[in-house]
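The material for today's practical consists of a large collection of protein records. Getting from the letters to the tokens is the skill we practise here. To make this concrete, we reproduce a full record directly below:
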Amino acid sequence: MRICQVQPGILEIKPIGQMGWGAVEKIIREYKSSFEKLGHEVVIKYLNEVNQDEYDIIHIHMANLCIEAKNKGIPYIFSLHDHHTEYNGKDSFIFKQNLEAMKGSIFSITHAEHLIKYFNDVDKLFYVSHGVNTDFFTPKFKHPLINKEHKLLMVANNGIAGNQGIDRKGFRYGIESAKELDLEITIVGAEANKEFFSIHKDLLEYNKLTIIDSNPTENELLEIFQDHTIFLHPSFIEAGHPNLTLLEACSCCLPIVGTYKGSNEIVGMSVINEISSENVIKGIKEIIKQYDILIPFMIQYRLQYDWINVCKELIKMYENVINFQNFVNSEDIKKKYVEIYNKKL
């Protein structure tokens, strides 16, 4: 199969280990790597370089590029990655733009199951999970598990809709929980986090808080994961359930306390349904109590999150596009992919 993944045009797609922030770019890179392992030809190109006759599948990850492709008569598959579609509401430009991209697609993908119901004006949106490179994000237990001193970790770029002061990722809950339990906590992310902490200066008063806002590479991030014991993710909105950092923590065998809207259980995760410092504290206590029981289970299940498993399912969807000639009838497409989706559950 000849597959073209369309470059979003925002950040450079770097090799594994070298990349810093850029979730969509990381997803495209991992798709390419896994598809090639499965024996397919994959290129990453800007839309203006794409000749549709050269590819069996053209997969686009930005709504504006989808609309441009439709105007050019290029058939495409669309992946939704933008949490602003939910945050800004159905009357917003960003929601309407993404809806238009979906309606013009052969079929579309969301990485959060609840967004299928949210986009109820389109009948060809399907769920495909995110994955993780389990060969790279590996556990490294430097100390005995029993009586281990716990260190909390959060990895996120905070803020939303251009407002860096909004605590989308729950930094306050994490720091307040660490303070209550007298635990070390590290918060890692992009330079934009500097603005968050300049607004919320009171959080800096906790003397066991370490902030890394230098946009570390994946090589650096791996060492940080391996040096901590519990991952916190009390985020109030995500376009990925699970999102990438949560799966990276899973692959490194860090038990997790956080929010998650998904039907598939995340092994080693204590899910909080209502975000509060009290619930994060409760979750951390539960994790610590079960820690030495959870780790062997996380080791056993970590490979199920690998990108290769995600891409095997996606290849089935791609193949049905190639074999399915009637792209006009969206109801037929819906039936076809509902069948695929149900087989995955």
Notes: DSSP finds twelve helices and twelve strands in the chain. The mean pLDDT is 92. The longest strand covers residues 2-6. The chain has two domains: 2-131+307-344, 151-304.
